[in-house]
Write a structure and sequence with these properties.
heterodimer; A: mainly alpha; 3 domains; globular; B: alpha/beta; Rossmann fold
Chain lengths: 307, 285
Amino acid sequence: MIISCLFSLAVYCLFYGRLPSHLLLFVVLLLFGGSLFFRHKHGHRHGGFLSIDVQVQKSRLKSWHPGVKTCFAVMAALICIAADSFWLSLFVICSMMLFTIYGGKTPAHYYFALLTAPLTFIILGVVAILFEISPVPLGLLDIAIGGRYLCVTAAGQQASLSLISRAFAAVSCLYLLSLSTPMHQIIRFLRKIKTPALMVELMYLIYRYIFLLLATQQQMATAAESRLGYRDWRTSLRTMSASSLNLLFLSFRRSADCFAAMEARCYDGEIAFYESEAAVRKPEILAAAAYLLLLVGFWYGTRRLQG
Amino acid sequence: MNDVLLALDKLDYSYEDGSFALKGLSLAIRKGQRIAVLGNNGAGKSTFFLLCNGILKPDKGAMSYGGKTIDPRKKQDLMGLRQLVGIIFQDADHQIIGSTVESEVSFGPMNLKLPREEVARRVDQALQAMGLTEHRHRPPHYLSGGEKKRVTIADILAMEPEILLFDEPTAFLDPAGVRTLEGLLSELHQQERALLVSTHDIDFAWRWAQRILVFHDGQLLADSTPEQIFADGPLLEQAGLRRPYLYDFTLSLQAHFGWPPDVWPRTTTEIEAYFKANSANASSR
């Protein structure tokens, strides 16, 4: 609900004065209703991030070489950020969405539910840029608050729009990667391109144990709920603090157990695995390169138009 | 005596607060033995396993492997010991670290710094032995409990140890998983290898073990054959154990059906076979 309101409000302010106002109002109401309907239908679910891993296993893009996918996603994101063009970003957002939903067969409602998390952050971040406080009205939209004005200026709109579109485009590129590539493949690729071992190992262990922690937390939450631990706001707070503390202790114990199990297999400070190699296929590289070239071409085209 | 693998001599191990976890532990594990380790929770079974593998270092006492003295504080000795003595931990989730079955099983051999081809060979072999070849590219945390247990066994097999320590292997398994595990345990039993299983399942211990260690309160109370252990009433009382159902049944067979006093069947099939053989004898007479 809050996200839907925020989202619609942000869209309204962003496009105020750029679109005919009745059209804008219509679009905003449509967005608001749509997002409410969507949340109602696919409600919030527990362990959303756990199931990323499940979705990845089902993705049809899983068989693509992780190196190709990683390079593709990162390059596309970099081009969007560098190009700073609203239309290019929009193109990337839409095409990445299509790749993920139609190419990878990730369920659309799952994809959009997953997008709400970064979207909230992006919108909250943009609010600070979009609004200016000034003693005199100076923008397209001025809201008087106690002798001062909260203004939306054309420059602010421009800056926010460029920020939102770039951030959103980069997120959709990374979503293509993370919804089609198992974490261990990404990590293995990072290791191959000589990312510092400490970083890769940290990433690895965090990824590995996040499942344990989440599962433990879920079990405790269920046990607490069955004893009315979340019956009202006050009780919920108390339960949450108790279960967080418990989680901390449990994590300490678990990490000691896990470390003993690693040591029992001759672990001496370096995590190394063997995995059979997957071959890079030519059509994959060609397709990825063609798309990236298209983006670069698009970028040059828009620059020529503007310049 | 050259079939002794691991020998422990008067090992003491105490917790940080000074209370004893294990006291005066002496025993020898020989090639080809199937040993069940019994005792209550907190009796010292897990501590015993962790000492065997060098995760815990004894305060006092001596260890040797194949006749050679081992100092678990020396890194070289320690790595050798850990290769030769493998632990399959109770909770597979604590042990599993790899993100695919294949990489998980490769963790041990990779730590042994073996060449890549050798690691690949051992991983293939271990996966095959545990019937996991088709799962090799799957992430282990989505496998079933029984499959996870097999992954953790493959983990250790790939290091090619001579002693396998199973810490309560049936604790997280359903009946089907337990049945598979028992099948695997008899497959794993080889002349060159010793298996130790810590368990609360007394009937399993009776079916499977040739030798039983009973721990109580940080001490090794008894180390003997199952027949002797379960004949010792006061010992069972003290350690909080009971007799296996089949053992009790055999006692009543002895009392009422003239069952020979020196025959202790380990399974119902053995009883069946005995009766069949005897009725065949009777009819031929």
